[in-house]
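[step 3/7] fold_predict: job queued, chain A
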Amino acid sequence: MNPTHRIRNVLIGGGVFGVLFFSAIFWGLPATQVPTGDSDSLEAKKQMLSRFRAQAAVRNLHQARQEQSQKRLASFEPLFLEVSDHMPPSSRLEEIVQKAAAESGLVVQRREPIQPGRIHPEYRQVTVRIDAQCTPEQFTAFLVAVRSFPRFLWITEISLRSSHIKNGILLYPSVLVSAIIKSPESPGSEKSGNPVISSRP
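[step 4/7] structure written:
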């Protein structure tokens, strides 16, 4: 074969191969490569959706716990003190404590309501402090009267001082008595922190 023809055939074959090769690369790129920007945007949207789902799950759990707490407290409402809307929150508790002290023989030297604390959007804890003078027997009778009251009352704190007298011992107790009242929170009112309900001997 003439060398000229061989060279021409090689050049033609090489040209055809080059055209096919670059065509394959050109048409194959769109099918095999995804722009980086679209990939990043899709991943960001997936992460945002995941966060929204997690936040919704937390909100649903919080709402379910609130509803459960509301039902549990509502079942105890017959034990809570009833207070009229036009009366101070602790007024009913003050009357009860004063009556128990008088019937037990305590000499009340001071009676002071403590600022009510909200334990739930529907309920508040009311507390009354009394400072008194009495004998040990009279003080025991007072504690029994408080604990025996039909509604739920509890002693939050007790502090005692004593002095010796001719016929025995005289006590000077300072007592905090607490109860729960139903007092729905007004729309737009400030929410106070929940107090810790405790009992100190």
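[step 5/7] annotate
The chain has two domains: 35-75, 80-182.
The domain at 80-182 is CATH 3.30.70.60 (Alpha-Beta Plaits).
exit 0
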